[in-house]
Recover the amino acids of this structure.
């Protein structure tokens, strides 16, 4: 699926493989012409586009034009004194510079945005943690996350957090950070126990989770409120994180 998007944009034709690269809609020609036929015609498997396209014409053997009628459909090219270039051709036929984002846009299965997306992907989120939101450890972290009243049920946790998915209030951001960090470290611990002999107790995991969230909180700024004052005390955060006007408090 991905290979069909990789094209060679012809420059001087000196790097593009005549047989194995995709520089025309019918390419690669190796899917049509066998190595034996290539050798019998006096070419090699290392033949470049510039070796066959001369003075504005394709140098096809006459017997090939009769045998491989599709060769008549190959477009003429315009050789330039610049190197051939790998490009990404989108599903819509647009040539783009190759990048991770252009690849993702073409290969992903696009869906409508789900209502809980902002609960997982929010500006203060640690992306590595967010992927494992569904793996939860609850006891030992929920009190300091301001979620002590939320029962130990994923449905209830989800229904609670989704109400504040887009909220930038400190208590709601912290709740999302704690839940995602807990999920990540439980997943990590599960893999460690499956594939190694290393184990960490619940108390140690809780300590790691809270320390990780605390480190993240040190990178944030909070608007001064009574709720934020309580959060600073509970998380042992410096008062220097408080500003008079901020988008996270």
């Amino acid at each position: 699926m991905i290979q069909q998007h990789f094209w060679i944009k012809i420059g001087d034709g000196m790097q593009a493989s005549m047989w194995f690269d995709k520089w025309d809609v019918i390419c690669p020609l190796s899917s049509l012409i066998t190595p034996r036929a290539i050798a019998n015609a006096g070419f090699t498997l290392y033949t470049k586009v510039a070796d066959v396209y001369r003075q504005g014409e394709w140098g096809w053997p006459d017997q090939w034009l009769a045998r491989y009628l599709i060769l008549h459909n190959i477009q003429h090219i315009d050789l330039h004194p610049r190197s051939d270039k790998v490009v990404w051709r989108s599903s819509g036929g647009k040539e783009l510079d190759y990048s991770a984002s252009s690849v993702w846009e073409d290969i992903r299965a696009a869906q409508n945005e789900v209502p809980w997306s902002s609960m997982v992907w929010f500006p203060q989120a640690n992306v590595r943690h967010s992927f494992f939101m569904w793996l939860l450890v609850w006891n030992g972290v929920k009190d300091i996350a301001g979620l002590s009243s939320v029962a130990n049920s994923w449905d209830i946790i989800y229904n609670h957090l989704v109400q504040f998915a887009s909220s930038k209030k400190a208590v709601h951001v912290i709740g999302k950070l704690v839940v995602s960090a807990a999920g990540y470290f439980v997943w990590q611990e599960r893999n460690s126990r499956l594939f190694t002999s290393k184990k960490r107790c619940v108390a140690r995991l809780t300590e790691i989770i809270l320390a990780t969230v605390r480190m993240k909180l040190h990178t944030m700024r909070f608007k001064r409120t009574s709720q934020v004052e309580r959060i600073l005390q509970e998380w042992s955060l410096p008062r220097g994180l408080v500003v008079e006007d901020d988008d996270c408090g």
